[in-house]
Amino acid sequence: MRSEKCDYVDLAQTLEVLSDLLIDTKNRTERPVVCRAIGAYLHALEKRLEAPLSPAHQEALTTDSLPPLPDSPFAPDEDLLREYCAALNTLLLDNRLEEGIAKTLTGLLYELLGYLVEALTTPCFLRDDEQAH
């Protein structure tokens, strides 16, 4: 996927696939390969968060009524979530962590990427009366 042709929804969808690969990785030598890919997509995401969405994604994220906000004490914005993911990813890339710690941090990165993907792919635009007809 060429990063200049994609928007943050495309990047989020790829991060979701990569996070699944990461959590399923059992081999210590494979983890850095997946982490490098995650790092590249997180870096691309940083640049694309403020860019316009494609018309198809704009429509997909538009709804007649917005879903209720989650009642959660953990609610960082997308930029901060991306930074958390990047920091954890950097630690995992080092590949010198004790395996138990690496496994725990891998699980945490997986969960944070899930939050990030959800935040970026949940409908967030309200259809106005003109669009509804």
Quick gist of this model?
The protein has 133 residues and is mainly alpha-helical.
What are the main properties of this structure?
single chain; about 5% strand; 2 strands; mainly alpha; about 130 residues; two-stranded parallel ribbon
Number of strands: 2
Radius of gyration: 16 Å
The largest beta-sheet arranges its strands as 1-2
Largest sheet: 2 strands, parallel
Count of discrete domains? 1
Averaging pLDDT over every residue, what do you get?
Answer: 86
Number of helices: 6
Taken in chain order, the helices and strands follow as: HHHEHHEH
Structural class: mainly alpha
Percent helix among the residues? 55-70%
List low-pLDDT spans: none
What distance lies between the first and last C-alpha atoms, to the nearest angstrom? 35 Å
Strand content: under 5%
| Broad shape | elongated
